[in-house]
Amino acid sequence: MKNVKDIRILLVDDEPHILQFLEFGLVNEGFEIRTALDGMSAINLVREFQPHVVILDVMMPGMDGFEVCRLLKKNGSNIAVIMLTAKDEVEDRVKGLTIGADDYLVKPFSFEELLARIEARLRNQFPGVFREIAIGPFRIDDPRKEIIFGERSLELSPTEYELLKFLVVNHGIVLSKTKILEKVWGYDFGGEENIVEVYIRSLRDKLGDKEHRLIRTLRGAGYRLDWS
């Protein structure tokens, strides 16, 4: 991953061999890393280290990952929390996301997938760490509020820009209308959900996506941006 200097990641897991594996890989990618073997140590390290991202195991003795996440998010912290779980159960995922986790991974997972999730969270929550983001066929220049698709600069309204950026940085992930409204329009938006459909239609027109192969609609679930 490029341009990751000064990006801080805290790894929290009670299994030393997992910490060593992740620390070795992430240090080689250029991240600044700290590790913790338990929840209380993690909370103390956060105050000192001020990480951008916390990779947090769910199943730990004493203070589990859910409680650590709840405490981290308690004061509206912008720390990106990616939870690791050994169980692919809907209840665990729902609980984690409900208390504020930003993403989750089910063990065992590939290091490449973890990198992709970290990158997505950084681009979404800390866009300032990258001046220009290159993802697939898109280049996003956030300071200039410009998105280039292929070799073409798109003419976008401010809301279209924020919506397309949100879709791009979360490519491959299904985003519900509710999630899109919260992130793009804000939690206090009082309009109709159909506004999302209107803007998606406009983006498809500007991207030349007549067959909806780029921005896909998943009925009853939301939208997902893909490219081959």
TrEMBL record:
<dbReference type="InterPro" id="IPR001789">
    <property type="entry name" value="Sig_transdc_resp-reg_receiver"/>
</dbReference>
<dbReference type="InterPro" id="IPR036388">
    <property type="entry name" value="WH-like_DNA-bd_sf"/>
</dbReference>
<feature type="domain" description="Response regulatory">
    <location>
        <begin position="8"/>
        <end position="122"/>
    </location>
</feature>
<dbReference type="InterPro" id="IPR039420">
    <property type="entry name" value="WalR-like"/>
</dbReference>
<dbReference type="GO" id="GO:0006355">
    <property type="term" value="P:regulation of DNA-templated transcription"/>
</dbReference>
<feature type="modified residue" description="4-aspartylphosphate">
    <location>
        <position position="57"/>
    </location>
</feature>
<dbReference type="GO" id="GO:0000156">
    <property type="term" value="F:phosphorelay response regulator activity"/>
</dbReference>
<keyword id="KW-0238">DNA-binding</keyword>
<keyword id="KW-0902">Two-component regulatory system</keyword>
<dbReference type="Pfam" id="PF00072">
    <property type="entry name" value="Response_reg"/>
</dbReference>
<keyword id="KW-0597">Phosphoprotein</keyword>
<dbReference type="GO" id="GO:0005829">
    <property type="term" value="C:cytosol"/>
</dbReference>
<feature type="DNA-binding region" description="OmpR/PhoB-type">
    <location>
        <begin position="130"/>
        <end position="227"/>
    </location>
</feature>
<dbReference type="Pfam" id="PF00486">
    <property type="entry name" value="Trans_reg_C"/>
</dbReference>
<dbReference type="InterPro" id="IPR001867">
    <property type="entry name" value="OmpR/PhoB-type_DNA-bd"/>
</dbReference>
<keyword id="KW-0804">Transcription</keyword>
<dbReference type="InterPro" id="IPR016032">
    <property type="entry name" value="Sig_transdc_resp-reg_C-effctor"/>
</dbReference>
<protein>
    <submittedName>
        <fullName>DNA-binding response regulator</fullName>
    </submittedName>
</protein>
<keyword id="KW-0805">Transcription regulation</keyword>
<dbReference type="GO" id="GO:0000976">
    <property type="term" value="F:transcription cis-regulatory region binding"/>
</dbReference>
<dbReference type="GO" id="GO:0032993">
    <property type="term" value="C:protein-DNA complex"/>
</dbReference>
<dbReference type="InterPro" id="IPR011006">
    <property type="entry name" value="CheY-like_superfamily"/>
</dbReference>
<feature type="domain" description="OmpR/PhoB-type">
    <location>
        <begin position="130"/>
        <end position="227"/>
    </location>
</feature>
